[in-house]
Design brief:
The structure is a single chain. With 104 residues, the protein is mostly helical. It has a domain of 60 residues. Helix content is 60%, strand content 0%. It has 5 helices and no strands.
Length: 104
Amino acid sequence: MLTEVTPDFIPPSLWPPYSPDLNPVDYAIWGIMQERVYNKGKIANVKELRQRTVDEWERLDQRIIDGAVKEWRKRMRACAAAEGGQFEHELLLLVKHCCCNCAL
């Protein structure tokens, strides 16, 4: 059913085992969250860390999340172009030379 509703869905068998470069939370959001949580002074305990994290997640602008998700397809293309290897350098090439002329 998922492939009928979402024809562009990539099956789990083709997902990389662990790739923070392809996870929007890892490549875009977590850095922002860390900065906001830790820049408010010393954290006394795990409970305070948890509460700060929840508070900052609730304050996170939806546009940041949307932008991170929008970048995912570009990152997948770069990863494919690099045959699963290091692809950060490919991101600039794809922006300039996308094969399908889509809006990256």
